[in-house]
């Protein structure tokens, strides 16, 4: 049928719009009373075959006439002042080499070609298409809009492809979009089946769902048609220009580029062009044999009895707008718009040239003269004007405005529709972030999908995770690693986790920092309450023991163990138990200072008292002769001076501590998760260990003396009790040091309080509990007469009498 035959020629019919655009522009200028007052424009159309040996046939005829003699032409037949070539850059290149010899103005209406911008090689060539200076930014903006960061690249092996590849890869690197694979091909490359298969494997096996194709029109068609045979499915293709989608029937139902997103140069619609195309028919342009051929094929101009097509059999009201949109487009295409601008550029230059000739020559001399084509360059190089549609046309490449882009999507449902729909636009002049506008609901994705395709190498790392890049892979390929302790990632795809401030802590999801609660060893805490109760109970018990000793001060046991030192020791133990309460509750400056100073002083008093009692016992049993020096020391009360002397040394150390680096309030934000521990910093650690070391040396001295006196007669002798008490005391504080340094936060304070209570309770229990037991429960043992009846009562009573006398 005619329509089936027409499908094989649809590309040629679509290119026929170039002819109609040229005719439309010429007729519009000729009707314009402002441009070219007494001169009209005409046109000649020549077909240039793509084959190399016939490419120059028609250009030679046009330049040199029917004789085709180089450098010779009849001036009477030569009236052309400019030539339009395109859309192929290859033909413009070949013809431009010939036209450049004669400085003949050449306009190319195809895509901008970097190879044609060499003014030394092509001094007379002007490119109408704008340079794609922002095409890379536009494409990357589209990728970022859909969150596509893993894409393939397919470019042609020419200067344009190399330029675009460099621009695109730089823009992608700045926006963290990665290249999954890169294919640079040519028409010769595609012709090899094995290499086509290699390209197919790379595209089809890649996890990238997006393929960016950049090429000139001819190379693009060759590449796409070759890859179509491989049936690569499920890919989204982003292309740089519009081309003839009807080259292959049902292409989008089978091929790899089922979802094409096409960037085309934005241009203003030219009013009147559609009406002009509707009015075109063979009777209006009888010399146009191609139009007649198109007409006969399109509208079935034949009768049932004869296969001969005649004009009389065609519908009289037939119009080109009857043809389907994919066969013939009624709106002006981008290439046709370039032709329209070229005609206006020539007319504007001719107009200015004629105005200049009017000023220099007389009207009579100007009449009938056609300007020389070489003269036209002077008026074309810096020519800037607005065409009838309102578009600004600039020839200078450095002054050209950056193009704006329309984004098209091909609708092919129902099958065969193949309708190009504008779904968005890109303007480089808009504010950053607003350059791309897209109607995503208008985009037709692959049949069977309900959402936007994904094209990423690795899934995004959610909050709480950071990106850990994989070795020897692109930056878009990474693993998701949980944030370390007390660090968060509150947005997706964070490179590094952020550490929470000291007053905050990370939640379990590691995506938010929460405010830490203040914490200290309070009286209300179970641990604090237990320690406080222990301190009060032991204090009360010590008071009870003291009261019992005071009440029975004249008993043998109390008198025999130096009741004054016993009173001092019991009172110091009361303060030892009570000083532990300073470690509980909310710390402040006063309590921080009193904690360590009180602890050091009262424990020094207690330990020095134990030392004095031990020395007294030793002196009592060694002073057997009244004339000996030890008897004099015992009688003079020298052991009692041990307490103030030892206490004075400790007070001096504490004074130096307070004068140099006293304790202060501090916070510990790391020991307990979610809490800031408020505690007392000891200030000078050296001073603290000096106080503790001095106290330890006193305890060691007391333990040594008591240990040496442990075998003395034990009627009322407490040397063994003092030995055990100091053994407990030293054991507690030797255990305290490693436990204290391994503890953190409130536990550290609790360890210190517990050590104070246990060591104090050890002194109380080992020294006074046996005496307390004898006084209350065994009163018969608290009488001196009880011991005189024993075999060794004399020796014991001798010891007792001596001790009693020195009490």
Termini separation: 141 Å
The counted number of beta strands is: 22
Any idea of the CATH class of the largest domain?
Answer: Mainly Alpha
CATH superfamily placement of the largest domain: Rhodopsin 7-helix transmembrane proteins
CATH architecture of the largest domain: Up-down Bundle
Stated plainly, the CATH topology of the largest domain is called Rhopdopsin 7-helix transmembrane proteins
Strand content: 5-15%
Query: Which class do the helix and strand fractions yield?
Result: alpha/beta
The gyration radius over C-alpha positions equals 53 Å
Give the strand line-up of the largest sheet: 5-4-6-7-8-11-12-13
Q: Give the low-confidence spans.
A: 1-8, 245-257, 362-368, 786-807
**What's the tally of helices?**
26
User: How confident is the prediction overall: mean pLDDT?
Assistant: 78
Morphology: rod-shaped
Largest sheet: 8 strands, mixed
Give the number of domains.
4
Organism: Dipodomys ordii (Ord's kangaroo rat)
Subcellular location: Cell membrane
Family: Belongs to the G-protein coupled receptor 3 family.
Pfam families: 7tm_3 (PF00003), ANF_receptor (PF01094), NCD3G (PF07562)
């Amino acid at each position: 049928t005619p329509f089936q035959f027409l499908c094989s020629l649809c590309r040629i019919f679509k290119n026929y719009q170039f002819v109609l655009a040229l005719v439309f522009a010429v007729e519009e200028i000729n009707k314009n009373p402002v441009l070219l007052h007494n001169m009209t424009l005409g046109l000649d159309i020549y077909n240039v075959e793509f084959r190399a040996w016939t490419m120059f046939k028609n250009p030679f005829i046009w330049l040199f006439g029917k004789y085709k003699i180089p450098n010779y032409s009849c001036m009477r037949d030569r009236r052309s002042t400019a030539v339009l070539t395109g859309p192929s850059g290859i033909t413009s290149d070949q013809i431009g080499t010939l036209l450049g010899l004669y400085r003949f103005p050449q306009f190319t209406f195809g895509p901008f070609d970097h190879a044609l911008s060499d003014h030394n090689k092509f001094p007379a060539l002007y490119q109408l298409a704008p340079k794609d200076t922002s095409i890379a930014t536009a494409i990357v903006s589209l990728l970022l809009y859909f969150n596509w960061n893993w894409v393939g690249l397919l470019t042609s092996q020419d200067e344009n492809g190399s330029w675009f590849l460099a621009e695109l890869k730089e823009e992608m690197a700045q926006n963290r979009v990665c290249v999954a694979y890169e294919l640079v091909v040519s028409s010769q490359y595609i012709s090899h089946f094995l290499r086509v298969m290699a390209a197919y494997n790379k595209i089809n096996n890649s996890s990238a769902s997006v393929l960016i194709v950049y090429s000139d029109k001819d190379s693009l068609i060759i590449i796409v048609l070759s890859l179509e045979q491989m049936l690569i499915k499920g890919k989204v293709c982003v292309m740089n220009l519009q081309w003839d989608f009807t080259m292959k029937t049902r292409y989008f139902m089978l091929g790899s580029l089922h979802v094409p997103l096409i960037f085309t140069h934005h241009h203003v619609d030219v009013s009147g062009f559609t009406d002009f195309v509707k009015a075109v028919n063979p009777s209006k342009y009888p010399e146009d044999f191609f139009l007649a051929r198109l007409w006969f094929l399109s509208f079935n101009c034949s009768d049932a009895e004869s296969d001969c097509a005649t004009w009389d059999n065609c519908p009289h009201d037939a119009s080109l707008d009857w043809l389907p949109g994919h066969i013939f487009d009624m709106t002006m295409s981008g290439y046709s718009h370039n032709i329209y601008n070229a005609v206006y550029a020539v007319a504007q230059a001719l107009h200015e040239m004629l105005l200049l000739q009017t000023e220099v020559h007389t009207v009579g001399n100007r009449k009938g003269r056609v300007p020389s084509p070489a003269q036209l360059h002077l008026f074309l190089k810096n020519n800037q004007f607005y065409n009838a549609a309102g578009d600004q046309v600039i020839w200078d490449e450095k002054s050209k405005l950056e193009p704006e882009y329309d984004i098209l999507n091909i609708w092919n449902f129902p099958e065969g529709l193949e309708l190009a729909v504008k779904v968005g636009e890109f303007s480089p002049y808009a504010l950053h972030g607003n350059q791309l506008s897209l109607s995503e609901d208008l985009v037709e994705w692959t049949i069977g999908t309900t959402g936007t395709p994904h094209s990423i190498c690795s899934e995004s790392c959610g909050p709480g995770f950071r990106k850990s890049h994989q070795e020897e892979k692109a930056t878009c390929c990474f693993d998701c690693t949980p944030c370390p302790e007390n660090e968060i990632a509150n947005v997706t795809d964070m490179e590094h986790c952020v550490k929470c401030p000291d007053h905050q802590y990370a939640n379990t999801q590691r995506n938010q920092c929460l405010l830490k609660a203040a914490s200290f060893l309070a009286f209300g805490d179970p641990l604090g309450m237990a320690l406080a109760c222990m301190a009060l109970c032991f204090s009360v018990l010590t008071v009870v023991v003291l009261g019992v000793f005071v009440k029975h001060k004249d008993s043998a046991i109390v008198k025999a163990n130096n009741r004054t030192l016993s009173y001092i020791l019991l009172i110091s133990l009361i303060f030892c138990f009570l000083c532990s309460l300073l470690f509980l509750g909310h710390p402040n400056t006063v309590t921080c200072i009193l904690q360590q100073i009180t602890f050091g002083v009262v424990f020094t008093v207690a330990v020095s008292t134990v030392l004095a009692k031990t020395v007294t016992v030793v002196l009592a049993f060694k002073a057997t002769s009244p004339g000996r020096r030890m008897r004099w020391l015992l009688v003079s009360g020298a052991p009692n001076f041990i307490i103030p002397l030892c206490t004075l040394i400790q007070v001096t150390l504490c004074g130096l501590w307070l004068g140099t680096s006293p304790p202060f309030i501090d916070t510990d934000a790391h020991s307990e998760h979610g809490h800031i521990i408020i505690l007392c910093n000891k200030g000078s650690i050296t001073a603290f260990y000096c106080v503790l070391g001095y106290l330890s040396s006193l305890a060691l001295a007391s333990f040594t003396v008591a240990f040496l006196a442990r075998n003395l007669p034990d009627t009322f002798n407490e040397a063994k009790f003092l030995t055990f008490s100091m053994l407990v005391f030293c054991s507690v504080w030797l255990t305290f040091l490693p436990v204290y340094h391994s503890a953190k936060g409130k536990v550290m304070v609790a360890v210190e309080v517990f050590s104070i209570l246990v060591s104090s309770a050890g002194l109380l229990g080992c020294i006074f509990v046996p005496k307390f037991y004898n006084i209350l429960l065994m009163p018969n043992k608290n009488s001196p007469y009880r011991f005189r009846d024993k075999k060794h009562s004399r020796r014991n009573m001798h010891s007792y009498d001596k001790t009693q006398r020195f009490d």
